[in-house]
Write a structure and sequence with these properties.
Helix content is 36%, strand content 16%. By secondary structure, the chain is an alpha/beta fold. 36% of the residues are buried. The chain starts with 14 loop residues before the first helix and ends with a helix. The chain has a single domain, classed as Rossmann fold (3-Layer(aba) Sandwich), CATH 3.40.50.1970. It is globular and about 40 Å long.
Length: 158
């Protein structure tokens, strides 16, 4: 006779806590950037997370050209298992703030330089660092995606 699967009753008020302990292959860190041209600057974050054994996903989406796509990604990030989001952006650098406005997860902004950036990325750094009250975004140094990954690992306790 085969064994019946064990059924565990979970109180309706605490379903999320039961699932937090499950080990799944879902990524824990989302890495987003506004343009494919940002990928070389963001690759050190992917490498650092991979070296630490932390699963991540990489997406390209523009806060200006695809605001609905960014909002949907941010709103659904926690449901998909993400625990931290790293957002790289240059120029107006709206992506980290838009992501933070649509989710409760920690967001780490990476200010990026570009061929049209002002003062070597200072414009992006100020845009990320100066978020309005209630929309927190951590900010690392210009083009320092590796430090964003290190901070994400510390947030995760990994």
């Amino acid at each position: 006779m085969s064994e019946q699967p064990q059924i565990v009753a979970v109180p309706a008020s605490e379903p999320a806590t039961e699932f937090e302990e499950l080990d799944v292959d879902a990524p824990l860190v989302g890495i987003v950037m506004g343009s494919k041209s940002d990928l070389p600057a963001m690759e050190p974050a992917v490498k650092e997370l991979t070296d630490r054994g932390i699963r991540s996903e990489v997406r390209v989406m523009s806060a200006h050209r695809e605001p609905d796509k960014v909002a949907d990604y941010a709103r659904n990030a926690k449901l998909r298992g993400l625990r931290v989001i790293i957002a790289g952006a240059g120029l107006a650098a709206a992506l980290p703030g838009v992501v933070a406005a649509h989710c409760e997860l920690p967001v780490i902004g990476v200010p990026l330089t570009s061929r049209t950036s002002v003062a070597g990325g200072l414009d992006a750094l100020l845009a990320i660092a100066q978020m309005p009250p209630g929309v927190p975004v951590a900010c690392v140094g210009v083009d320092n995606a590796r430090n964003a990954a290190v901070l994400a690992a510390r947030i995760l306790g990994a």
